[in-house]
Amino acid sequence: HVMKKLTDFRQIGDLHFNQHCSNREIASVLSIGAATVSRALSTIRRSGIPWSELEKLSPTELLAILCPDSVTSYLEPDFELYDKKRRKSNKLTLQYFYNEFYLSADNPKQLPRYSYTRFCALFNAWSHDHHGQALINVPPFLPGEVAEIDFSGDPILYRNHFGVINKAWVFVFCLRFSKLIHVELVPDQSASSWLLGCSRALRAIGGAPKMLSIDNARALVSQPDLYVGSLTAALRAFCRHYHIEVLTNKIRAPKHKQATEYACGQFQEKIQAPLTKDGSVFANSLEELNAKIKADVDKFNNRPFTERALGSRSSLFEREERATLLPLPEDDFKNYKCSILTVDQYHWVKKDGRRYMVAVFHGGQASDLCQLTD
Q1: Is the pTM higher than 0.85?
Q2: How far apart are the C-alpha atoms of 342 and 345, rounded to whole Å?
Q3: CA 226 to CA 17: how far, in whole Å?
Q4: Least confident among 94-103, 143-152, 159-168, 329-338
Q5: Angle, to 10 degrees, between the axis of helix 23-30 and the axis of helix 34-46?
C-alpha cells in the first residue's frame, strides 16, 4: 500500500508539473479517479517544497515529507561502532553485535527495532557505501559436486584419568549442496590430520564428491597464491586415491566457502560451547571424545531447515546427494609424510642417512619424497 502510494505521487507529480497535464488527463492515463489526482496534488502543494526538489528525494524521504504517518521510524544501529570493534576482534560476529549491542542500545523514544534479517541487509548496504565491498555471490552447485573442509576456531581441551590436559582440534567437513557436516577431532593441524579427517569423513558419508574446496592452509598448499595455490605431494596423493579434484579458494575470501564457515560457527555455538562450559572435558582418548560429540553432530544434521519443505541436512543428503557421490576405493588413504629434497648430479637424494635414486630428468631440481606414517 505504501509503495503504491509512492508510485502514485511520483507519476502524478511528473505528469502535472513536468508534462503539464490536466487532472482529467492524468486520471485517464493512470486509470484512477480525478479526486485521487486532486488530493495528491494538494498534498504535494501543502509540503511547500517545489516538485523539482521533491522528485530528487529517495522514496523514504519523499514519503516522510508527504505522508509522515505512513512511515515508521526505527532505532538506527551504529554500524561505525561495529566496524571499529570488528577490526579489533575477528570473533565479533554480526549476530553477536545485533544481540549484545543493538537490542540493548538506549531507546528513549521507544522506537521499534529492526529484525535481524533487515539489520543484516542494512549493514551490507552501509558496508558497500563506506568501503566499496560488494557482496560475493557463491556460484551454483550440484549434488555431490563440492565438499568444503576447514578447522573450527579454538581447540577443545580434554583431560584423562591422570589429570593430563590435551588439545583436540576440530576438523569440519561439509557438503556444499545438502550442508551435511562431519566433525572429526584430531591432535593437531598438520597435513596428516587434515587428510585423516577427510578420509574418515568420506568413509562416514559412503562416497566422495567430485571436488574438494580448501583454503590456502600451509599444511596443504606448498605455494600459496592469490587465486590458485600449488598443492603438496600428500594432498595430490590423496586426490589420486579418491579420484577427486581440489579447488583452492582465494586468499582472505571466507565467503567462497560459506558452508564450512557457517557449520564451524554452529558447531562452536551449539556443541562446543555447552560441552566446554566447565573448561575441559573428561576423555581418555580422542576416540572417546569423538564418540561424545557424534550424537550432537547427528542431531544437528537432523534438525529441520528454516525452509521446512527441504527437510533436514540428513534427509536432503539421502534424498538427492548420496547417489551422486563417487564410489570409494576398498582401502582408506594412508597418510604420508613428505619432504622436499634436492636431487644431486648423480640423480640421488639423501634423507636420514639414506640415499634414494630418482628419475633422470629430476637432476638438479627439487623433488618430493614421501613415506608412510602411522
Answers
A1: no
A2: 10
A3: 55
A4: 329-338
A5: 120
Please choose, from the candidates 177, 195, 372, the residue with its C-alpha nearest in 3D space to the C-alpha of residue 259.
Answer: 177
pLDDT of residue 227: 53
Strand (E) or helix (H) holding 9: helix 2-13
For 303, the grid coordinates are 534438525
Only one residue has cell 570473533, namely 91
Cell of 156: 577443545
Contact 369, 356 (CB under 8 A): yes
In this predicted structure, what is the pLDDT of residue 307?
61
Tell me how far apart the alpha carbons of residues 321 and 315 are, in angstroms, rounded to a whole number.
Answer: 10
Q: Are 359 and 347 in contact (CB under 8 A)?
A: yes
Question: Distance between CA 185 and CA 322 in Å, rounded?
Answer: 24
The answer to whether 44 and 13 have CB atoms below 8 angstroms apart is yes
Type and span of the H or E element at 97: helix 94-97
Angstrom distance (rounded) from CA 144 to CA 135? 26
DSSP state of 32: -
Give per-residue burial for 222-241: e unless 16+ CB within 10 Å, then b: beeeeeebebbbbbbbbbeb
Enter the DSSP assignment of 71.
-
Q: How many residues does the chain have?
A: 374
3-state helix vs strand vs coil in the chain, percent to 5: 45, 20, 35
pLDDT at 47 over 80: yes
Judged by DSSP in three states, 153 sits in coil
Q: Which three cell numbers stand for residue 95?
A: 549476530
d(CA 171, CA 177): 19
C-alpha cell at 358: 630418482
Which residues, in sequence order, are CB contacts of 215 under 8 Å at separation 6+? 150, 248, 249, 251, 257
